[in-house]
Specification:
The chain folds into 2 domains: 38 residues, no CATH class; 73 residues, no CATH class. 12% of the residues are buried. The chain has 2 helices and 6 strands, in the order E-E-E-H-E-E-H-E.
């Protein structure tokens, strides 16, 4: 799992020897008394914008899950938006940032609490 510091805007990943408790951990980079925020393994563009206060770039890679389909499809956010405006055969169910570079597992749903 990756973490984000609201103070210095750093994204970091613990190297495994320490489990971060986001209720009490300070950022190891700026050590400004600020708590770290977990970044979900599969972050939606809306979660990205809420976290960074910047829209996810149009040329950013995403995974797309269409309603009534079983497979995730890779595309750019712009490509998904343009195709869905024209005549995408099925409505889009989920869009997640392609980080990690493998699609979400079967049955995945976005974490609405973040």
């Amino acid at each position: 799992m990756k973490f984000y510091c609201k103070n210095c805007k750093s994204v970091f990943e613990p190297n495994g020897w320490h489990e971060y408790d986001t209720k009490s951990e300070e950022c190891p980079l700026c050590i400004a008394g600020k708590l770290v925020v977990p970044i979900p393994d599969y972050e939606t563009p809306a979660q990205y914008e809420k976290r960074t206060r910047k829209p996810f770039p149009d040329n950013g890679l995403v995974w797309v899950k269409l309603s009534y389909e079983t497979e995730w499809v890779g595309n750019t956010l712009y490509g998904v938006q343009e195709t869905s405006k024209k005549n995408w055969p099925d409505p889009v169910e989920h869009i997640v940032i392609a980080d990690p570079p493998v699609p979400p597992p079967d049955g995945w749903k976005p974490d609405e609490t973040i």
